[in-house]
């Protein structure tokens, strides 16, 4: 007899069907797993053997062959433990083949038969829902699976409980969805003294989803500003929450059965490798840019990152996804993130501060800032100078706007953008940073005076066509924040003012 268990393997976010076949036949005792298993699957033989022994069952002293079909597809992960165990139990006529065939199965086994958590439960549950199958998964992740809308979920804490459930001796209840989710508290923007221009730029970045670079001396407040951006961003839509949570589920970052309702904020250290940032490694796992999908990627000390690592951001910034090519597979992850970067103007950080400048200024600033390539700068919409904060700012007590006030304006501006996208037949877009081609021309109609300002700036600084488009997108967001239906001269002038020109070098 050959038993069959439905399980899966992963290629990025793609969930691929795997049919696990178990045959127990006469012959010398052997336990063989075939079908391109990795080492963790090969080791499942011992975990399954121990788990069955712990509940008083022993594997027959016969020839056991387990095939993972399709045989030419590489399979990885300890989540095959539970399918292997249930395949053996089905082949031994302990569990009905007819019942088990209605489920997708995944879970890791401990030696005492406990079912342990694994990565990727949410995308598997979504797949099971589409294919009208149930799901058997670890008890700890049952709540996570419920967010898929799947009606038949068996979240078991042990192999024995699962056997008793199928035998009718006990009933495993449907897991409860976590409904009480405490909103995350972010630092408030009112805590920042001074830097009014930077706060205004941050509001524009939030309203239009624009990338932003802040250049200023140490202690000017660049990191503080970046950390307060999540507090002025609207919450994720249900579609965005599901997209983001699927990536975090595959990476094993979802905790307590909750999915992501807050926008991700990822802040990798500047010594992060290229695979850590864009994804890769032996299993082609998602990198920081994919974990920041629909959220923020904050790169502090930008020039200190490896040059090749920064250049790897160019394609994801433009396309919204990253492709990881390996010898045996090609994996694609979504990576639609908002880049917020901060850097000192030079290595010592005191360029433009006359009393503190080193003897190599301005040469040191040119060399330090040249570490950021022109093509990468082209993809950053707002590039602003953050001056040092004077002592006077710390002694003033003024009515400074809080994050909640700015959030209201940001949400209003985004609602205007959504109505525009609906009008032009592009409901899939979310922010002005995604405007391109004919849609950008339709959304931004300039009068002659505004055109002359933009053309004069373009000719003087020899900007690229990409930079030209990004200025238009930025002006459109500024107009939306001010409730202007059309982009006028002052909006173009303000957008142009946010294009910083490095020392002795045009953009």
Keywords for this entry:
alpha/beta; Ribosomal Protein S5, domain 2; four-stranded mixed sheet; elongated; single chain; 507 residues
Secondary structure layout:
Elements: E1 2-11, E2 14-25, E3 30-34, H1 39-42, H2 44-54, E4 63-69, H3 81-91, H4 97-100, E5 103-105, E6 108-109, E7 115-116, H5 121-130, E8 134-138, H6 142-146, E9 153-156, H7 159-167, H8 196-208, E10 212-215, H9 222-227, H10 238-250, E11 265-266, H11 274-278, H12 288-291, E12 296-299, H13 307-311, H14 314-319, E13 321-325, E14 330-334, E15 338-343, H15 363-369, H16 374-378, E16 382-385, H17 391-395, H18 403-423, H19 437-443, H20 448-461, H21 465-481, H22 489-497
Parallel strand pairs: 3-4, 5-8, 8-9, 10-15, 10-16, 11-12, 12-15
Antiparallel strand pairs: 1-2, 2-4, 6-7, 13-14
Characterization of the model:
Helix 8 packs across helix 21 (465-481). The longest helix is centred in the C-terminal third of the chain and has 21 residues, at 403-423. This protein has a domain at 2-167: Ribosomal Protein S5, domain 2 (2-Layer Sandwich). A five-stranded parallel β-sheet has the order 11-12-15-10-16. The protein has a four-stranded mixed β-sheet with strand order 1-2-4-3. It has a three-stranded parallel β-sheet with strand order 5-8-9, with helices on both faces. It has helices at residues 39-42, 44-54, 81-91, 97-100, 121-130, 142-146, 159-167, 196-208, 222-227, 238-250, 274-278, 288-291, 307-311, 314-319, 363-369, 374-378, 391-395, 403-423, 437-443, 448-461, 465-481, 489-497, and strands at 2-11, 14-25, 30-34, 63-69, 103-105, 108-109, 115-116, 134-138, 153-156, 212-215, 265-266, 296-299, 321-325, 330-334, 338-343, 382-385. It has 22 helices and 16 strands.
